[in-house]
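User: Quick sanity check before I run a bigger batch. Here is a single chain. Can you write out its predicted 3D structure?
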Amino acid sequence: MRDKVLFIDTETGGLDPNRHSLLSLAMVVWENMKIIDSQELLINDGILSVTEEALSINRIDIEKHKRTAISPSLAIEKILLFLNRHFPQQEKITLAGHNVQFDVSFLRLLFSKNNEDFSNFFSHRIIDTSSILYYLYLAGHITQKAISSAEAFDYFGIKVEGRHTAIGDAIATAQLFTKLLSLPNK
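Assistant: Done. Predicted structure follows.
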């Protein structure tokens, strides 16, 4: 196998990318059944539109976040540097994650607001481990309907370092993907 995949995960101030802030983004490069690099960026958009519910889940201390997070423009620079280290510039990057459309919507908006064309870097093809798990359950390849990330990590025995942090969840999702690819064929 030669394809590289970029697993992403975000922590946000809420569910709506048009109203709530992107607080952190994790990127995990997966190749040949293993993680080869990862990076997490804490982002301060200067507005920090958050809900109490979101902060209770991701446990982000918003005051500390204000002091340590970087601007969206600097985040874009760091994202592009990371991508350039791992992916040929002429090749569109396949994104992956768990319920990844949520994360992609925040990432797409980050690029748009910073005058970068998302489609210049990323493929329209996306790998979603939640959809894969649902298929495997319906096909009888797994016995439990383990569609949420918590259910999936438990079912496959994945220990998550830093649950509900972007980097912790992205790494665990890449590990989950490796386990899914290792399932015996029926």
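The beta strands are 4-12, 22-31, 34-42, 93-97, 122-128.

User: Great, the batch can go ahead then.
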